Amino acid sequence: MTPTMRAAVLTEPGRFEVTDVARPNPGRGEVLVRIIRVGICGTDMHIFNGHYAADSLPLIPGHEFTGTIAELGEGVAGLTVGAPVVVDMNIGCGTCYWCRRNEILNCPEMQQMGITMDGAFAEYICVPARLVIPAPQDTAAEVLALTEPLACVVRCARKANITFGQSVVVLGAGPIGNLHVQLLRTIGAAPIIVADLSKARVNMALEVGADVGVTDPDQLEQVVRDHTDGRGADVVIESVGLPALYKQATKLARKGGHIAAFGLTGAGETLPVDILQTILQENSIKGSVAGMGQDMHDALTLLTHGRIKTERFIQAIYPLDRIQEAFDSFQDRPTDLKTQITMT
Hints:
This protein is α/β, with parallel strands linked by helices.
């Protein structure tokens, strides 16, 4: 008989079915990972609500995960059964122009676990061995499951070339916004100004390193100028995904400043840009959304060395059988920066 496993299958937008499905078997160059903990990402919520990857349904979502190696496929060396691991979710061909530059999302053959193919809301997942990253035995699984979202933030900072002493505005103080703030503090950016309509989330950002918090959108531009000698911010990170916030970001950045486009908008949304002023002021905008390759390794290093405060991210834990409840209540729990699904 074919071995089975429990998995949460998103059969249609808004509806999970927790059921038995065939357990995958690792092929050549693959590793079977036993899942321990999976985080719910904003992208998962977009898929759940039918706003993204609808053509992939039915689907087992989940890509922010950690687990242990259960089985090695043929030809896999350098990995050990039972070892804790995290996994890079982005699968490229490995040989094209974009893969060689660690720009996997542009690979013509790119696949993403839990988005374009079945992911980690299951007891097991098969993954390419080259994407498996061994993790320290003494780091808790709930912390290791934060590696992928932190890697996204690491890549954003890298793409924006953020360095010490730069003023940065973070639009959005949700889980990713909070991680942006923490990484910026580690880098040495100053001042760090965070804006969100939620006072509770702004306060949490202030607790972990933001210098200034703003909850009134009408005051934000003046606050930014007050804290940057009237210039505007060196860098503005949009981490929500609203066209109106992207438009506001163009007013918050200084001449010669940079906008980090991070938050996912709806398909086809556009941003009006004054081309002449962009040229004359040497402004820039660059997109970044997923951590991959070295970003994952750097994120794991930061987590295992205690550079990120994780307490607020590991308070909402649901078993797999209650995944529907976890998703249905997600928006009603704004102070739960991260919701995780446990398999044990």
